[in-house]
């Protein structure tokens, strides 16, 4: 609930300050998140590296959120970092636990969207 809801609320707050007609390509910052989400499952030896890269992205996103010009990119960098960290954690779990963990993540994500969208 906290992860997804927090990002929903962050996007809503950033939308309040967005100027009409402004081109925004910060969604491209989600591309590293896709790579980080796939890497630990493609090669389990990449779990530690994915964790480090995800941590650095999360820390960098906090710095980017401090300035309105970079805040939108910072939010997407943070999403990518969190996606990588969650994937690294899931890749290290026993396969029998994955359906339960994914179910709980999905339920929490739906709850976060519902609460964050109010």
Automatic annotation (TrEMBL):
Which GO cellular component terms, listed alphabetically, does the Swiss-Prot or TrEMBL entry include? plasma membrane
Instruction: Give the UniProt record's GO annotations in the biological process aspect.
Output: NADPH regeneration
Name of the protein:
proton-translocating NAD(P)(+) transhydrogenase
**Its Enzyme Commission number?**
7.1.1.1
Example GO molecular function term?
Answer: NADP binding
Q: What is this enzyme's class at the first EC digit? A: translocase
Task: Report the superkingdom from the record.
Answer: Eukaryota
Q: Which residues cross the membrane?
A: 45-66, 73-91, 97-116
What is catalysed by this protein? NAD(+) + NADPH + H(+)(in) = NADH + NADP(+) + H(+)(out)
Keywords from UniProt, A to Z, are: Membrane, NAD, NADP, Translocase, Transmembrane, Transmembrane helix
Q: Does the keyword Transmembrane helix apply?
A: yes
Species name for this entry? Polarella glacialis (Dinoflagellate)
């Amino acid at each position: 609930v906290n992860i997804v809801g927090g990002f929903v609320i962050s996007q809503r707050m950033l939308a309040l300050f967005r100027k009409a007609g402004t081109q925004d390509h910060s969604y491209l910052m989600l591309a590293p998140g896709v790579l980080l989400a796939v890497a630990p499952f493609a090669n389990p030896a990449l779990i530690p590296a994915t964790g480090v890269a995800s941590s650095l992205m999360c820390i960098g996103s906090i710095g980017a959120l401090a300035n309105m010009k970079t805040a939108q990119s910072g939010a997407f960098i943070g999403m990518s970092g969190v996606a990588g960290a969650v994937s690294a954690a899931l890749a290290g779990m026993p396969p029998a636990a994955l359906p339960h963990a994914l179910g709980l993540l999905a339920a929490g994500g739906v709850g976060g969207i519902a609460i964050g969208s109010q």
